[in-house]
Each structure stands twice: as structure tokens, then as C-alpha cells.
């Protein structure tokens, strides 16, 4: 059997890379899977054992244990998850302060997605070239917020090239997942970093500031300067109905750290007495935007569970 890396999945076929050659592979028979309830058995980034049927096609026999993985709620089954990628060294989130406006709700959801496996995150604030002084101030505010929690933050511009060499240095020799809501300039940034990618960019089409996307499958591409990039198109919003309330609490880094001092060890940091998290929010030690984003997600998760219980009757 040969070892390879899955670089793309199109449903029933998987493209597997081995020593710079690509093979079209299928799953034959049953794979031994871990107890992850995922709607897709194999993710981009998976290391697999496969056998060749001919020069270009093969069968996947086994998925090797994953170092880590990133999942999102399955669009079809709310309590199942969809594997986005596995074995990643770094997750990069592209955002911007303006055009479109920054959405901390999305940043925090992205961080909630990468946190269960402690995947290092770099948040890139793109379009630095068009930030006015007040936008730069806002950037500095968010930079200190997120670096304070333990994430890396950079500003950059796909147009003027600011900080692109630094980003390249960070990506070099790593497998990095990259995401961003449409319109933030992720495609432009990738093309500027790695011109061989030749991805299509879209002009922001209307006043809503939303762009468009062509594909929705994650795909891994090698970087000419070393490393691999897993692009994840089509992540527009992130829901967490595969989580329980305490999963949310455990994966907001600073909330989890503070929760040791809460009176109740299953504290959800809302109305419970002697809640250390709420005290720190009031003191300004835990950021209010983060706390409100936390509350919003917790409420969504709870509403969902409530309606499901009551629909069973
Ligand atoms: P994507 O949807 O995130 O892949 O975004 P695109 O790369 O398609 O870019 C969306 C729009 O933002 C396009 O009109 C780009 O020209 C513009 N854009 C991308 N990066 C920058 C940047 O660094 N500065 C400025 N001013 N515009 C940018
Ligand atoms: Zn608490």
C-alpha cells in the first residue's frame, strides 16, 4: 500500500497526492472510522493508505490517525458535522475593517471552530491601503484584543503588497487552512502571495459589498516557496448546533481560563451567582464584544436544543 495525502474531494472521488503525482481514488468497502459523527468520511489533508488499480486510479483502504481536524455543522443534519480539513498547522482567517465592515461575530465563530484542537490562528486584516485613521485605530483595538487572547494578528494589503512577505514566511513549510467571508479579498491575497494559483477574483458586485464564489469544495494546493494551502470557499456563516452550551464555554479561550474561579463548575456565565467571567466582563478584563458574541452563540445552541426536545412530543 502507498501513503498519500487527500488534496480534494468531490463526493465519491478523492484526489490523492503521492510524491507529486495525483491519483483518482475511491473508497471501496468500509473504512474504519473514529466515532466522529461526520457526513463525509475523508477530509482534505487526510493521510491515507491506498492501492493502485492502474496508472491513475486507486482505492483508499485506510485513513491514518489525524493530528487534528476542523469541522463545521453539517448543512443537512444539524447534529452531524462536516469535516473541512485535517492535519493543519495553521488556520488563517482573512477579514477587513472596511469594504465590507469587520464582523467580530464571524471572527469569534471561526476561532470557536479551530479552538477544540488548539490550532494556531493568524487573523489577517486585508485592505490596509484604504483604512482611514479611524479604521487604523479600530484595527489596533482588535489587534490588541485578539493578540491578548493568544491569536496572531497582522494587517496586509493585496494591492500594495504590504506584509505579504511576512505572511509568506509564516506559511512556508506549513499546511495552512485559509478562510474568509466573500469580499474580504482572500482571492486577491492568495494570488499576490502565490501567482501560480491564478484564482478568479470578483469585483464587489453591488452595494451590499458581497462578492460571489465559484466553488464550494475545500482544496489543497502546494506553495512554490514550500508548504500547502487549503482553501475553503463557501464558508459564509458558521453555526454550532453540533455543540452543547458548555462546549461553547470551553472553547472561548479567555472565558474558559477565567471559569476556574466560577462558583459552579458547570457555570454557563450568564445568570449564575459568583460567576468570575461576568465579574471580569464588568471590570473590562474580558472584552464585552467577545462576551456578547459568546452569549449569542450560546443562545442559538440552546434555542435549537429546546425546539428539538419539544418537537419530539
Ligand atoms: P474574496 O471574495 O475574499 O475572494 O475577495 P476578492 O479577492 O475577489 O476581492 C474582492 C474585492 O476587494 C475586489 O474588488 C478586489 O479588488 C478588492 N480587494 C482585494 N484586496 C484588496 C486590498 O488589499 N485593498 C483594496 N483596496 N482592495 C482589495
Ligand atoms: Zn461563570
State the strand order across the main sheet. 10-9-8-11-13-12
Oligomerization category of the chains in this entry: single chain
Q: Which structural category do the helix and sheet elements fall into?
A: alpha/beta
Q: Note the main sheet.
A: 6 strands, mixed
Q: Which shape, going by the Cα principal axes?
A: globular
Q: How many alpha or pi helices?
A: 8
Task: State the helical fraction.
Answer: 25-40%
The proportion of strand residues reads 15-25%
What average pLDDT do the residues reach? 90
| Secondary-structure element series | EEEEEEEEHEHEHEHEEHHHH
Strand segment tally = 13
Task: List all distinct small molecules, including ions and cofactors, that are bound in this structure.
Answer: guanosine-5'-diphosphate, zinc ion
Radius of gyration: 21 Å
Ranges where pLDDT stays below 50 over 5 or more residues in a row are 202-215
State the end-to-end distance.
Answer: 51 Å
Provide key terms for this protein.
single chain; 313 residues; alpha/beta; six-stranded mixed beta sheet; five-stranded mixed β-barrel; 8 helices; 13 strands; 28% helix; binds zinc ion
Amino acid at each position: 500500500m502507498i501513503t498519500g495525502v487527500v488534496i480534494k474531494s468531490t463526493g465519491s472521488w478523492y484526489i490523492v497526492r503521492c510524491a507529486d503525482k495525483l491519483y483518482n481514488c475511491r473508497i471501496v468497502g468500509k473504512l474504519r472510522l473514529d466515532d466522529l459523527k461526520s457526513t463525509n468520511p475523508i477530509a482534505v489533508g487526510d493521510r491515507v493508505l491506498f492501492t493502485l488499480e492502474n496508472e491513475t486510479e486507486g482505492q483508499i483502504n485506510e485513513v491514518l490517525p489525524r493530528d487534528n481536524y476542523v469541522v463545521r455543522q453539517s448543512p443537512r443534519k444539524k447534529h452531524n458535522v462536516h469535516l473541512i480539513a485535517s492535519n493543519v498547522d495553521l488556520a488563517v482567517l482573512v477579514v477587513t475593517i472596511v469594504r465590507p465592515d469587520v464582523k467580530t461575530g464571524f471572527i469569534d465563530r471561526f476561532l470557536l471552530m479551530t479552538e477544540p484542537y488548539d490550532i494556531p490562528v493568524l487573523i489577517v486584516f486585508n485592505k490596509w491601503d484604504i483604512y482611514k485613521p479611524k479604521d487604523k485605530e479600530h484595527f489596533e483595538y482588535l489587534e490588541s484584543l485578539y493578540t491578548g487572547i493568544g491569536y496572531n494578528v497582522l494587517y496586509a494589503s493585496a494591492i500594495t503588497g504590504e506584509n505579504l512577505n511576512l505572511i509568506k514566511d509564516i506559511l512556508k513549510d506549513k499546511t495552512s487552512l485559509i478562510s474568509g467571508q466573500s469580499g474580504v479579498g482572500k482571492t486577491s491575497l492568495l494570488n499576490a502571495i502565490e501567482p501560480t494559483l491564478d484564482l478568479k477574483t470578483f469585483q464587489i458586485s453591488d452595494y451590499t459589498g458581497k462578492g460571489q464564489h465559484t466553488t464550494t469544495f475545500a482544496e489543497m494546493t502546494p506553495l512554490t516557496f514550500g508548504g500547502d494551502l487549503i482553501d475553503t470557499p463557501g464558508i459564509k456563516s458558521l453555526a454550532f448546533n453540533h455543540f452543547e452550551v458548555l462546549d461553547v464555554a470551553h472553547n472561548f479561550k479567555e472565558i474558559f481560563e477565567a471559569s476556574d474561579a466560577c462558583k459552579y463548575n458547570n457555570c454557563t456565565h450568564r445568570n449564575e451567582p459568583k460567576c468570575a467571567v461576568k465579574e471580569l466582563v464588568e471590570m473590562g478584563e474580558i472584552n464585552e464584544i467577545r462576551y456578547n458574541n459568546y452569549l449569542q452563540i450560546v443562545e442559538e445552541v440552546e434555542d435549537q436544543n429546546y425546539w428539538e426536545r419539544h418537537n419530539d412530543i
